[in-house]
Amino acid sequence: MNNYTFLIINPGSTSTKISIFENDIETMTETIRHSSEKINSYKEIYDQFDFRKDLIMDVLKNKNIDLSTFTAIIARGGNMKPVVGGTYEVNEEMLNDLKIGVMGQHASNLGGGLAYSIASELGLKAYVVDPVVVDEFEPLARISGTPLIPRKSKDHPLNQRAVAREAAKEMGGKYDDFNFIIAHLGGGISVGTHKRGRMIDVNNALDGDGPMSPERCGAIPFGGVIDLCYSGEYTKKELRKKLVGCGGLVGYLGTNDAREVIKRIKEGDEYSKLIYEAMAYQISKEIGASSAVLKGDVDAILLTGGLAYDSILMDWIKDRVEFIAPVKVFPGEHEMKALACGVLRVLDNKEKLQMYPNK
Ligand SMILES: Nc1ncnc2c1ncn2[C@@H]1O[C@H](COP(=O)(O)OP(=O)(O)OP(=O)(O)O)[C@@H](O)[C@H]1O
Ligand SMILES: CCCC(=O)O
Protein backbone atom coordinates (compact mmCIF):
# COMPACT_ATOMS: atom_id res chain seq x y z
CA MET A 1 0.00 0.00 0.00
CA ASN A 2 1.22 3.52 -0.81
CA ASN A 3 1.72 6.08 1.94
CA TYR A 4 -0.03 9.42 1.62
CA THR A 5 -0.23 12.46 3.87
CA PHE A 6 -3.36 14.57 3.54
CA LEU A 7 -4.25 17.98 4.90
CA ILE A 8 -8.02 18.05 5.41
CA ILE A 9 -10.03 21.28 5.73
CA ASN A 10 -13.66 21.42 6.83
CA PRO A 11 -15.11 24.93 7.10
CA GLY A 12 -18.30 25.10 9.19
CA SER A 13 -20.51 28.03 10.06
CA THR A 14 -18.84 28.59 13.44
CA SER A 15 -15.56 26.71 13.08
CA THR A 16 -12.81 25.58 10.73
CA LYS A 17 -11.66 22.03 11.39
CA ILE A 18 -8.31 20.90 10.08
CA SER A 19 -6.74 17.45 10.31
CA ILE A 20 -3.73 15.62 8.98
CA PHE A 21 -4.19 12.01 7.91
CA GLU A 22 -1.56 9.39 7.10
CA ASN A 23 -3.68 7.35 4.70
CA ASP A 24 -6.87 6.76 6.77
CA ILE A 25 -5.27 7.42 10.18
CA GLU A 26 -5.69 10.83 11.79
CA THR A 27 -2.40 12.14 13.20
CA MET A 28 -3.41 15.71 14.03
CA THR A 29 -6.68 17.55 14.41
CA GLU A 30 -7.60 21.05 15.47
CA THR A 31 -10.91 22.87 15.59
CA ILE A 32 -10.58 26.62 15.26
CA ARG A 33 -13.72 28.30 16.66
CA HIS A 34 -14.97 31.60 15.24
CA SER A 35 -17.09 34.03 17.22
CA SER A 36 -20.44 34.97 15.68
CA GLU A 37 -19.32 38.65 15.86
CA LYS A 38 -16.31 37.85 13.69
CA ILE A 39 -18.30 35.76 11.20
CA ASN A 40 -21.12 38.32 11.06
CA SER A 41 -18.61 41.07 10.31
CA TYR A 42 -18.21 39.62 6.79
CA LYS A 43 -20.91 40.46 4.26
CA GLU A 44 -20.47 37.39 2.07
CA ILE A 45 -19.17 33.91 2.86
CA TYR A 46 -16.24 34.31 0.47
CA ASP A 47 -15.14 37.50 2.24
CA GLN A 48 -13.94 35.16 5.05
CA PHE A 49 -11.42 33.49 2.75
CA ASP A 50 -8.21 35.24 3.87
CA PHE A 51 -9.23 35.20 7.53
CA ARG A 52 -9.77 31.41 7.47
CA LYS A 53 -6.68 30.69 5.36
CA ASP A 54 -4.44 32.72 7.69
CA LEU A 55 -5.79 30.80 10.70
CA ILE A 56 -5.11 27.44 9.01
CA MET A 57 -1.56 28.45 8.06
CA ASP A 58 -0.96 29.71 11.62
CA VAL A 59 -1.99 26.36 13.10
CA LEU A 60 0.33 24.49 10.73
CA LYS A 61 3.19 26.88 11.54
CA ASN A 62 2.65 26.74 15.31
CA LYS A 63 2.65 22.94 15.20
CA ASN A 64 5.83 22.90 13.08
CA ILE A 65 4.12 20.88 10.36
CA ASP A 66 6.39 20.28 7.37
CA LEU A 67 4.16 21.24 4.43
CA SER A 68 6.42 19.41 1.98
CA THR A 69 5.16 16.08 3.41
CA PHE A 70 1.64 16.63 2.06
CA THR A 71 0.45 14.51 -0.87
CA ALA A 72 -2.81 16.39 -1.45
CA ILE A 73 -5.10 18.95 0.16
CA ILE A 74 -8.72 17.87 0.66
CA ALA A 75 -11.79 19.87 1.66
CA ARG A 76 -15.49 19.51 2.26
CA GLY A 77 -17.28 20.55 -0.93
CA GLY A 78 -19.98 23.19 -0.94
CA ASN A 79 -22.76 24.62 -3.08
CA MET A 80 -21.36 23.94 -6.54
CA LYS A 81 -23.49 22.48 -9.34
CA PRO A 82 -25.28 19.27 -8.30
CA VAL A 83 -23.14 16.17 -8.86
CA VAL A 84 -23.18 12.43 -8.24
CA GLY A 85 -21.38 11.25 -5.11
CA GLY A 86 -17.62 10.73 -5.27
CA THR A 87 -14.22 12.45 -5.25
CA TYR A 88 -13.55 15.50 -7.44
CA GLU A 89 -10.35 17.39 -8.24
CA VAL A 90 -10.89 21.11 -7.68
CA ASN A 91 -10.80 22.99 -10.99
CA GLU A 92 -11.43 26.55 -12.18
CA GLU A 93 -15.13 26.01 -12.91
CA MET A 94 -15.71 24.52 -9.47
CA LEU A 95 -13.84 27.40 -7.82
CA ASN A 96 -15.97 29.93 -9.64
CA ASP A 97 -19.23 28.10 -8.81
CA LEU A 98 -18.31 27.86 -5.13
CA LYS A 99 -17.37 31.51 -5.02
CA ILE A 100 -20.65 32.74 -6.47
CA GLY A 101 -22.56 29.98 -4.65
CA VAL A 102 -24.50 28.65 -7.66
CA MET A 103 -26.65 26.59 -5.27
CA GLY A 104 -26.59 29.05 -2.36
CA GLN A 105 -24.27 30.30 0.35
CA HIS A 106 -22.80 27.99 2.99
CA ALA A 107 -19.50 27.93 4.88
CA SER A 108 -18.55 24.75 3.01
CA ASN A 109 -18.30 26.89 -0.17
CA LEU A 110 -14.92 28.04 1.18
CA GLY A 111 -13.48 24.51 1.33
CA GLY A 112 -12.56 23.97 -2.32
CA GLY A 113 -10.96 27.42 -2.61
CA LEU A 114 -8.93 27.07 0.59
CA ALA A 115 -7.68 23.63 -0.45
CA TYR A 116 -6.86 24.85 -3.97
CA SER A 117 -5.01 27.91 -2.75
CA ILE A 118 -2.79 25.93 -0.34
CA ALA A 119 -2.31 23.09 -2.84
CA SER A 120 -1.25 25.49 -5.62
CA GLU A 121 1.44 27.04 -3.43
CA LEU A 122 2.81 23.53 -2.78
CA GLY A 123 2.47 22.27 -6.36
CA LEU A 124 -0.18 19.73 -5.30
CA LYS A 125 -3.73 18.80 -6.28
CA ALA A 126 -6.81 19.74 -4.28
CA TYR A 127 -9.90 17.56 -3.94
CA VAL A 128 -13.41 17.65 -2.55
CA VAL A 129 -15.43 14.55 -1.66
CA ASP A 130 -19.23 14.08 -1.58
CA PRO A 131 -20.10 17.81 -1.50
CA VAL A 132 -23.29 19.02 0.17
CA VAL A 133 -25.03 19.13 -3.25
CA VAL A 134 -24.64 15.44 -4.18
CA ASP A 135 -27.80 14.82 -6.19
CA GLU A 136 -28.73 11.30 -7.24
CA PHE A 137 -32.49 11.88 -7.14
CA GLU A 138 -34.81 9.72 -9.17
CA PRO A 139 -37.26 11.78 -11.31
CA LEU A 140 -40.18 11.37 -8.88
CA ALA A 141 -38.11 12.91 -6.08
CA ARG A 142 -37.60 16.16 -8.00
CA ILE A 143 -41.31 17.11 -8.02
CA SER A 144 -42.24 19.47 -5.19
CA GLY A 145 -45.83 20.38 -5.96
CA THR A 146 -45.14 23.54 -7.95
CA PRO A 147 -42.94 23.89 -11.04
CA LEU A 148 -41.73 27.17 -9.51
CA ILE A 149 -39.75 25.33 -6.83
CA PRO A 150 -38.03 22.07 -7.87
CA ARG A 151 -36.81 19.92 -4.98
CA LYS A 152 -33.05 20.18 -4.37
CA SER A 153 -30.54 18.00 -2.59
CA LYS A 154 -28.61 19.98 0.05
CA ASP A 155 -27.65 17.86 2.98
CA HIS A 156 -24.89 15.74 4.58
CA PRO A 157 -23.87 13.15 1.93
CA LEU A 158 -20.28 12.99 3.20
CA ASN A 159 -21.22 11.72 6.65
CA GLN A 160 -24.22 9.72 5.42
CA ARG A 161 -22.13 7.81 2.88
CA ALA A 162 -19.28 7.28 5.38
CA VAL A 163 -21.70 5.76 7.87
CA ALA A 164 -23.31 3.66 5.12
CA ARG A 165 -19.91 2.15 4.27
CA GLU A 166 -19.28 1.45 7.94
CA ALA A 167 -22.66 -0.22 8.43
CA ALA A 168 -22.29 -2.23 5.21
CA LYS A 169 -18.91 -3.50 6.43
CA GLU A 170 -20.47 -4.58 9.74
CA MET A 171 -23.23 -6.31 7.77
CA GLY A 172 -20.69 -8.23 5.68
CA GLY A 173 -21.09 -6.39 2.39
CA LYS A 174 -20.54 -3.15 0.50
CA TYR A 175 -22.48 0.13 0.45
CA ASP A 176 -24.13 -0.75 -2.85
CA ASP A 177 -25.33 -4.14 -1.55
CA PHE A 178 -27.92 -2.58 0.78
CA ASN A 179 -30.88 -0.22 1.11
CA PHE A 180 -30.41 2.22 3.99
CA ILE A 181 -32.34 5.07 5.51
CA ILE A 182 -29.75 7.38 7.08
CA ALA A 183 -30.59 10.25 9.41
CA HIS A 184 -27.78 12.77 9.95
CA LEU A 185 -28.76 14.49 13.19
CA GLY A 186 -26.58 17.57 13.70
CA GLY A 187 -27.19 21.32 13.83
CA GLY A 188 -29.05 20.59 10.58
CA ILE A 189 -30.92 17.33 9.95
CA SER A 190 -31.13 15.30 6.76
CA VAL A 191 -32.76 11.91 6.23
CA GLY A 192 -31.42 10.21 3.10
CA THR A 193 -32.92 7.28 1.22
CA HIS A 194 -29.99 5.18 -0.05
CA LYS A 195 -30.88 2.53 -2.61
CA ARG A 196 -27.96 0.21 -3.34
CA GLY A 197 -25.26 2.91 -3.17
CA ARG A 198 -27.24 5.88 -4.48
CA MET A 199 -28.95 8.56 -2.39
CA ILE A 200 -32.18 8.69 -4.39
CA ASP A 201 -34.05 11.10 -2.11
CA VAL A 202 -33.29 13.31 0.89
CA ASN A 203 -34.82 16.35 2.55
CA ASN A 204 -33.15 19.68 1.82
CA ALA A 205 -31.61 20.39 5.22
CA LEU A 206 -30.98 24.06 4.50
CA ASP A 207 -34.10 25.37 2.82
CA GLY A 208 -37.08 24.27 4.89
CA ASP A 209 -37.75 20.63 4.11
CA GLY A 210 -37.98 17.67 6.49
CA PRO A 211 -37.78 17.69 10.29
CA MET A 212 -36.93 20.67 12.46
CA SER A 213 -33.40 20.54 13.85
CA PRO A 214 -31.49 22.22 16.69
CA GLU A 215 -31.17 25.38 14.56
CA ARG A 216 -33.61 25.07 11.65
CA CYS A 217 -37.36 25.15 11.31
CA GLY A 218 -37.66 22.29 8.76
CA ALA A 219 -40.86 22.08 6.68
CA ILE A 220 -43.36 24.71 7.81
CA PRO A 221 -46.72 25.77 6.32
CA PHE A 222 -46.05 28.18 3.44
CA GLY A 223 -49.10 30.36 4.18
CA GLY A 224 -47.46 31.50 7.41
CA VAL A 225 -44.17 32.06 5.61
CA ILE A 226 -45.84 34.31 3.01
CA ASP A 227 -47.45 36.33 5.82
CA LEU A 228 -44.07 36.74 7.53
CA CYS A 229 -42.44 37.81 4.25
CA TYR A 230 -45.00 40.59 3.76
CA SER A 231 -45.35 41.59 7.42
CA GLY A 232 -42.77 44.36 6.98
CA GLU A 233 -41.09 43.13 10.16
CA TYR A 234 -38.14 41.37 8.55
CA THR A 235 -35.67 41.87 5.75
CA LYS A 236 -35.04 38.80 3.57
CA LYS A 237 -31.78 38.14 5.43
CA GLU A 238 -33.41 38.53 8.87
CA LEU A 239 -36.24 36.14 8.03
CA ARG A 240 -33.85 33.54 6.68
CA LYS A 241 -31.83 33.83 9.89
CA LYS A 242 -35.04 33.44 11.94
CA LEU A 243 -35.90 30.16 10.16
CA VAL A 244 -32.40 28.77 9.49
CA GLY A 245 -30.12 29.47 12.44
CA CYS A 246 -32.81 30.56 14.89
CA GLY A 247 -35.49 27.96 14.07
CA GLY A 248 -36.04 24.53 15.66
CA LEU A 249 -34.75 24.16 19.23
CA VAL A 250 -33.24 27.67 19.16
CA GLY A 251 -36.62 29.16 18.23
CA TYR A 252 -38.62 27.28 20.86
CA LEU A 253 -36.06 26.87 23.65
CA GLY A 254 -33.37 29.49 22.99
CA THR A 255 -30.54 26.95 22.68
CA ASN A 256 -29.12 24.74 19.93
CA ASP A 257 -27.40 22.53 22.51
CA ALA A 258 -29.23 19.25 23.02
CA ARG A 259 -27.25 18.65 26.21
CA GLU A 260 -28.77 21.78 27.73
CA VAL A 261 -32.25 20.61 26.66
CA ILE A 262 -31.68 17.18 28.22
CA LYS A 263 -30.57 18.85 31.46
CA ARG A 264 -33.79 20.90 31.53
CA ILE A 265 -35.91 17.80 30.85
CA LYS A 266 -34.20 15.94 33.69
CA GLU A 267 -35.01 18.90 35.94
CA GLY A 268 -38.71 18.44 35.06
CA ASP A 269 -39.18 21.05 32.30
CA GLU A 270 -42.26 19.70 30.45
CA TYR A 271 -42.16 22.30 27.65
CA SER A 272 -38.56 21.35 26.76
CA LYS A 273 -39.65 17.70 26.69
CA LEU A 274 -42.57 18.52 24.37
CA ILE A 275 -40.33 20.34 21.87
CA TYR A 276 -37.47 17.84 21.99
CA GLU A 277 -39.86 14.90 21.61
CA ALA A 278 -41.56 16.72 18.70
CA MET A 279 -38.18 16.79 16.96
CA ALA A 280 -37.89 13.00 17.45
CA TYR A 281 -41.47 12.63 16.14
CA GLN A 282 -40.67 14.64 12.99
CA ILE A 283 -37.43 12.72 12.37
CA SER A 284 -39.37 9.44 12.71
CA LYS A 285 -42.03 10.66 10.25
CA GLU A 286 -39.31 11.46 7.70
CA ILE A 287 -37.81 7.99 8.18
CA GLY A 288 -41.29 6.53 7.63
CA ALA A 289 -41.59 8.53 4.38
CA SER A 290 -38.22 7.16 3.21
CA SER A 291 -39.38 3.61 3.94
CA ALA A 292 -42.30 4.22 1.54
CA VAL A 293 -39.82 5.37 -1.14
CA LEU A 294 -38.06 2.02 -0.71
CA LYS A 295 -41.43 0.19 -0.66
CA GLY A 296 -40.48 -1.23 2.73
CA ASP A 297 -37.32 -2.93 1.39
CA VAL A 298 -35.03 -1.44 4.07
CA ASP A 299 -31.97 -3.32 5.36
CA ALA A 300 -31.19 -0.91 8.19
CA ILE A 301 -31.90 2.55 9.56
CA LEU A 302 -28.71 4.40 10.52
CA LEU A 303 -28.72 7.31 13.00
CA THR A 304 -25.66 9.55 13.11
CA GLY A 305 -24.47 13.10 13.97
CA GLY A 306 -23.98 14.84 17.32
CA LEU A 307 -27.56 14.21 18.47
CA ALA A 308 -27.01 10.47 18.09
CA TYR A 309 -25.00 10.64 21.35
CA ASP A 310 -28.27 11.21 23.19
CA SER A 311 -29.92 7.95 24.22
CA ILE A 312 -33.25 9.65 25.09
CA LEU A 313 -33.67 10.96 21.53
CA MET A 314 -32.44 7.67 20.05
CA ASP A 315 -34.96 5.69 22.13
CA TRP A 316 -37.88 7.93 21.06
CA ILE A 317 -36.93 7.47 17.40
CA LYS A 318 -36.33 3.72 17.72
CA ASP A 319 -39.69 3.33 19.42
CA ARG A 320 -41.43 4.72 16.30
CA VAL A 321 -39.32 3.23 13.48
CA GLU A 322 -37.87 -0.07 14.67
CA PHE A 323 -40.84 -1.87 13.11
CA ILE A 324 -39.43 -0.86 9.68
CA ALA A 325 -35.88 -2.26 10.00
CA PRO A 326 -33.08 -2.70 12.55
CA VAL A 327 -31.70 0.61 13.82
CA LYS A 328 -27.93 1.18 14.16
CA VAL A 329 -26.49 4.25 15.88
CA PHE A 330 -23.19 5.89 14.80
CA PRO A 331 -22.80 8.93 17.08
CA GLY A 332 -20.87 11.98 15.91
CA GLU A 333 -19.77 12.96 12.45
CA HIS A 334 -17.09 11.15 10.52
CA GLU A 335 -16.40 13.77 7.88
CA MET A 336 -12.63 14.22 8.21
CA LYS A 337 -11.98 10.50 7.84
CA ALA A 338 -14.54 10.30 5.02
CA LEU A 339 -12.64 13.04 3.15
CA ALA A 340 -9.31 11.21 3.56
CA CYS A 341 -10.83 7.86 2.56
CA GLY A 342 -12.52 9.36 -0.53
CA VAL A 343 -9.18 10.52 -1.97
CA LEU A 344 -7.41 7.36 -0.78
CA ARG A 345 -9.85 5.19 -2.77
CA VAL A 346 -9.07 7.21 -5.89
CA LEU A 347 -5.27 7.28 -5.44
CA ASP A 348 -5.31 3.52 -4.80
CA ASN A 349 -7.41 3.02 -7.97
CA LYS A 350 -10.34 1.55 -6.03
CA GLU A 351 -12.70 4.22 -7.32
CA LYS A 352 -12.59 6.48 -10.36
CA LEU A 353 -12.06 10.23 -10.00
CA GLN A 354 -15.23 12.13 -10.95
CA MET A 355 -15.08 15.08 -13.35
CA TYR A 356 -16.62 18.46 -12.47
CA PRO A 357 -19.12 19.36 -13.70
CA ASN A 358 -20.79 16.01 -14.42
CA LYS A 359 -21.70 15.64 -18.09
N1 LIG B 1 -22.72 14.05 23.76
C1 LIG B 1 -23.82 14.65 23.29
N2 LIG B 1 -25.03 14.35 23.81
C2 LIG B 1 -26.15 14.95 23.32
N3 LIG B 1 -26.15 15.84 22.33
C3 LIG B 1 -24.97 16.15 21.76
C4 LIG B 1 -23.75 15.57 22.20
N4 LIG B 1 -22.75 16.08 21.44
C5 LIG B 1 -23.32 16.94 20.58
N5 LIG B 1 -24.65 16.99 20.78
C6 LIG B 1 -25.64 17.82 20.07
O1 LIG B 1 -25.56 17.60 18.67
C7 LIG B 1 -25.90 18.80 18.00
C8 LIG B 1 -24.80 19.19 17.03
O2 LIG B 1 -24.42 18.09 16.25
P1 LIG B 1 -23.11 18.15 15.31
O3 LIG B 1 -21.94 18.51 16.12
O4 LIG B 1 -23.12 16.88 14.52
O5 LIG B 1 -23.56 19.34 14.38
P2 LIG B 1 -22.70 20.37 13.52
O6 LIG B 1 -21.46 19.68 13.01
O7 LIG B 1 -22.53 21.63 14.29
O8 LIG B 1 -23.74 20.67 12.34
P3 LIG B 1 -24.05 19.80 11.04
O9 LIG B 1 -24.02 18.38 11.46
O10 LIG B 1 -25.41 20.26 10.63
O11 LIG B 1 -22.98 20.14 10.03
C9 LIG B 1 -26.08 19.87 19.07
O12 LIG B 1 -27.45 20.01 19.40
C10 LIG B 1 -25.32 19.29 20.23
O13 LIG B 1 -25.78 19.78 21.47
C1 LIG C 1 -26.04 21.85 3.34
C2 LIG C 1 -26.41 21.19 4.65
C3 LIG C 1 -25.26 21.16 5.58
C4 LIG C 1 -25.65 21.78 6.88
O1 LIG C 1 -26.52 21.27 7.57
O2 LIG C 1 -25.10 22.83 7.25
Automatic annotation (TrEMBL):
Which EC number applies?
Answer: 2.7.2.7
- Enzyme class name: transferase
Gene3D superfamilies linked to this entry? 3.30.420.40
What are the protein's UniProt keywords? ATP-binding, Cytoplasm, Kinase, Nucleotide-binding, Transferase
In terms of InterPro entries, this protein maps to: Aliphatic_acid_kin_short-chain, Aliphatic_acid_kinase_CS, ATPase_NBD, Butyrate_kin
Which domain of life does this protein belong to? Bacteria
Catalysed transformations (reactions)? butanoate + ATP = butanoyl phosphate + ADP
Q: State whether keyword Transferase applies.
A: yes
Signal sequence coordinates: none
Task: Give compartment(s).
Answer: Cytoplasm
- Give the record's GO biological process terms: acetate metabolic process
Q: Name one GO cellular component term.
A: cytoplasm
Pfam families of this UniProt entry? Acetate_kinase
Q: Which GO terms describe its molecular function?
A: acetate kinase activity; ATP binding; butyrate kinase activity
What protein family is recorded?
A: Belongs to the acetokinase family.
What is the name attached to this protein's record? Probable butyrate kinase
Q: Which organism is it from?
A: Romboutsia lituseburensis DSM 797
